[in-house]
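Hey all, sorry for the wall of text incoming. These are the two entities for the joint prediction.
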Amino acid sequence: MSSFALKAAAGAAALFASVSLTTLAIASDKLTIVTSYPADVTDVYKTAFEQAHPGVTVEVVNKATSAGVKFLKETTSNNSSDIFWASAPDAFEVLKADGLLEKYSPAVEGLPEKIGAYPINDPDGFYTGFALSGYGIMWNTRYAQSYGLEPARQWSDLTKAEYFGHVGISSPSRSGTTHLTIETILQGEGWEKGWEQIKWISGNSYTITERSFGVPDGVNTGSFGFGVVIDFFGFSSRSSGFPVDFVYPDVTALVPANVGIVTKAPNEENARKFVDFLLSTKGQELLLDPKIMRLPVNPEAYAHAPEGFPNPFVGDTIKASVSFDSEASKAHYNAVNALFDSMITYRHKELTAAVKAIHEAEAAVGEGGSQEAKDLIKEARALVAWTPVDLETANDSAFAAIFTTKRQTADDKATGRQAEVEQEWDSRIVANYAKAVELAGKAKSMK
Amino acid sequence: MAALSTALPRASFGQRISWGPLTAALGILLFLVAFLILPVAMVIYVAFTDPGSGELTLANFMDFFRSALFREAFYNSFYVAAMSVVLATVFALPLAYITSRFNFRGAVLIQTLGFVPLIMPPFIGAVAMQLLFGANGSVNLLLRDWFGITIPFMEGLNGVILVQSIHYFPFILINLSASLRNIDRSMEESAQMLGSHGMRLFRRIVLPLAMPGYIAGASLVFVKVFDDLGTPLLLNVNTMLAPQAYLRISSVGISDPMGYVISVILIVCSIFAMWVSISAMRGKDYSTTQKGGGGLSKRDLGALETAGCYLVVLALLAIVLAPHIGLLLLSLGTVWSFSVLPDGFTTEHYVVAVNKAWPFIKNTLIYAGIAALIDVLLGTAIAYLAARTTLIGRKWLDYIAMAALAVPGVVLGIGYLRLFYSVDMPFTGAPLATWWGIIVIALATRRLPYALRSCSAALQQVSPSLEEASENLGAPKVRTVRRIVLPLMAAGLVAGFVTSFATAAVELSATIMLVARESDAPLAYGLYLFMQSAAGRGPGAALGVITVVIVGLATYFAQHLVEKARREQSASAGSH
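and here's what came out:
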């Protein structure tokens, strides 16, 4: 034993020394990128960029978008990051508001300013769009065939009874991309109707996944058949050989994925080169790598796109009927997260019970059922649809303040605590779902 | 029962102040304060702060207990932890008993294989279990084809209990086996001579004597499951305490104090569970004066009995190794989607993984190795100080170190970032929090309780009379510890090192907050990166298999060393 311990200690000490030396060596030319993107994306760009700029070594720090934002905030006093690279524009808005991004106008010329009515780049120049993302439905073809299900084409399809237990969705508080999807539906369908639709899709869901990748992962492996996902998850899964497909519903929006230079970047020159490289035709064509499959912002890059790859600049494969309003999104950003988790994530069991009971009652009562039974079902549906706050309240800055505990000045006094408010919602929501089950059961027994 | 000595913590000889232990205790205390108490205190402080006014308040805790959701999460966490202990016992008890009771070929293999689940990164284990046992996993697809039924193995809390008990049952197996091996054979023989045998012998003699090990293992399982984050998150179970804390702490914009409140409650509950286990052990002195050749007398088995044992062992191994089987299939499969087995097989994933994985592997070996070494050193020192000296507050070192168990990794990570970011490294000027050494310290702090419990259990079974004898013969304290105590504890120390090393090698939750650059990232982090994309699952699984093999081999050799040391020890004991 003692000789073993000695050897282990000596070995550890030797390794310790060698590693310390390498760590202490001063880097000559570096670039540190904080990103939410998986290795599939970052590896391709790391290799290509290092080739285009010999002598520069790219360091990638992978963090979930929200963790990345937190990381930059925590480390701002002693910043070591050069680039923040992620999808959700909201995250960039947060960083910009906190003064953590540096202005830069890319040297690449001839890029479109807007997609539809939506500006691709930050109008103030703090961050730049490099790819476009739309939201839609991904499904597993084997799964659909085995359960005899038609591919869903619209969000409303996913609310139907036959999809009960076959859908997967993530939570907006966990996943920046899901937040964009939920916000798109709310903007496209309106607050009340949007929430109702989201709740029926979620009620049909087998699970609410914790990470955004959990949804495509579940569809790929066949844990559930249909998923609400961002487009490149669908395309890259398909090109990786999984028996899956993807479709854009009419209610979708194209939103840019972004890159920005961090304030006081230690390697600012390289950071600029990276942004320019990302937007160049060569950098844009890398987006079409089978493992990446994102929509480039540079229309020229589509010349070499594979068969069946959508081009948002030509034709109407993507209807994108919603033009995403990021100001509106910002106004109730935290409220949407809290509402979704209160009504759906944390009460998923209760929600699915209510949705299931109503599906069953509707099947039993059918078209020819009594008016009384139909009224009961309608009442049950209204209980499920009930949302604790209306749009006006959600947008009210006084209300939004309970979700942001950061006080701007010492005199600020937030009213109400988030936990207190959520407990009020929760008891009402649970009661509603239980009541809906009861009413639906009554309607079913009446026929 | 004359062989059981009484009065364990006894006054040291001479009653003079001993500076050695005092210095050691202060040093350990300093380490614990800097790397455990302060970072956690930073987080706890937020829990008691009114988010509106910034004043200290208890309102956040009132909110917690008023919330039906949090009460449910609390109940679920408790239920899952308790059920996991029960199921883990079902896995561990037969394996421990068979291998230490009977002459059974391949006992070392079983003990090593039985250890393997611990070195599965938990979130990867959950992925593999979903593929095999999920609603549309291999088993249920077969059941649906053949009988038109499915069994909800992995639905909700069931899935968490199954994955957790498979993952953590080795804690019980290892500690129980160590206890069984250390039971003095003369105890058993005395009982047999007095006419006890069979179940009665087991119930009245073997079971109570093995209790310290069992309780040490079971309380570890309970607390680990109670605090674990990765598994419930991966199985999308949100209504448990740890996921609620994580979900609230880590979202953008939500800096609401409830996550911190839940962290505090997790910490309190875990400390309480550990306290219960320690008080259950109080007054139960199981140390024996002699190492009677070690362990229960082993007996040979008849052909039928052997077959029965093999059946039980193989069935249990099939269950507890299911995650590994699933992982192996995933790493070798091309596309595995809604089918019993992958569509085809390939070795390509391993090529990709090996090309990318070497820095991760190297980092892991270094980090986990140093962390485990620190743990064994600190663990032995703390165990010795607590059990064998009269220092005031000596038990508190033990309690504080054990409290690390109750600190969720993410909380520790956030605390470290807060505390160490403004501190610069000497010479380079880079922030201390971005130095890879901080990852090592985080790992060492997180895994210290494992090593400490192994060291304590080992020390508890070394009778103080042996030390007294040594000191009576004139040996100074240091020499007594080095020549008598440490060799007798050897098996427990190696067990502690291996447990710390293996679990540190697959730790993710604290490191995910602290990795500042990919070149410093350990394996678990690399796995996490791979598992974030459709094309990365195969290579990720391959990397997982490589991890399991490397750590498994290390464990096997460590086990081998223990066996060898034990044999030499009993041989030399016999020659005197």
